[in-house]
Amino acid sequence: FFFFKNFSSWLYTLEQMKGSDSTVLTEDSVKMAAHFCLPYLASLGIQSLVQQGATQGKTAHKLMDALKDTDILHWKHSLSELIEMSLAQTTSIWRMYGKSTMALQQAQLLLNMSSLEPVNFGVQQNNTEAFAVALCHLAELHAEQGLYGSVSELIQHLKEQFPPHTQHAKLWMLCDLKIQFEQHMNEGKYHLADSLVTAISALNKTEGLYRKAQVLKALKRSTAASNILQQLQVHCEKMKSIEMTIRVLLSTAELHWESSGFSTTLPLLLQALALARQHHLQSLASESILHLAFTQLMLGVPEQALNVLHEAIEPILAHGAVIDKGRAMLLAARCQMAVAGIGTHRREQTDVCTALLAVKTLTEAAGNFSTLNCKERLRDVHYLQAQLHHFLGQTQERNKCAMLFRLLDQELQSPAPLISMRL
């Protein structure tokens, strides 16, 4: 027991360390646990190594192979708690790598496994950290698809299973706040989103700062947003937080767009894309490509922007959030319109074909934004649709889209931002 207690403390200490030294020491610890026939501690060590590998840019298949070996160990020794931890960790890894379909499958597998366990009357079931993590991932995945009714049910179940002030309550509290924040931002309710920042910061200071910068940027307070992003970048580089570093680079690039400094964003975006690819973060790599394509469109090379965008479209449609699908479709339509020569006097057959393709693309974008009630972005879509139908000589469709634009413009009671200034 003394060895077990000291070994557990040692593993915890290693998890707090950064860099290659902790990896080597953890590997030695796993060998020691295996030598003394301690499968539980050996498994904990391997899971710690997998967690370190994920943050160090290891490929998914290597991490999954390592977890597969631990799963054999778990089933052999009937270590049900570690089976749950392994599934929760696998869910988190797939989420980090931007594979939402795989994450959803792993989370559901964990929940199904838990539901099959015999219930001991008087003992609360499914109140482990792994179960909370899986439910939080499910809530976020449903929120990304605009299924807020299902999200409410999941959060309510988490509240009942993990009441406030209990050990794992902070997991769902932060999850719930982040989902509400994103919903308010999508709907253009920036002041409501801002009201959640303090609570988010109390649970996770870095997440809170990032979201404060997002709100300030949306409210056109660019200087204040820039100051926060600079603080965040220094902090992330110090803590080696790759995901947040990439998000900060992308947000900083968006601030440059507002001052029409499109060419100055290229080094930032290329750095973000390189980091995302180096660490196999597909979702962030796709987001970086979207930003690059938008920048190229603004620099007057829509054909090149469209070629770049095609690389990101497939993973976004397969694994992306509804808002990202809508943004990608809207950007593709804008590139298609530019290639078709909308706004110029060219009327070649190929231009008309490309314009007709843009009509279909904008319809898809409108469907995505409608799902999330993104009225500001829907207004942008209807404006472009009216412009496109006018170019094609489709008067009835043009008038309908112009009317939809006007209705939304009156409802929003805020001046429509320049479409060219945001992705």
Automatic annotation (TrEMBL):
Coiled-coil ranges per UniProt: none
Top-level taxon of origin: Eukaryota
SUPFAM superfamilies (UniProt xref): TPR-like
GO biological process, one term: anaphase-promoting complex-dependent catabolic process
Cellular component per GO, a single term: anaphase-promoting complex
Keyword 4Fe-4S on entry: no
UniProt cross-references to InterPro entries, sorted A to Z: Apc5 (IPR037679), TPR-like_helical_dom_sf (IPR011990)
The entry's keywords: Cell cycle, Cell division, Mitosis, Ubl conjugation pathway
Protein name (Swiss-Prot/TrEMBL): Anaphase-promoting complex subunit 5
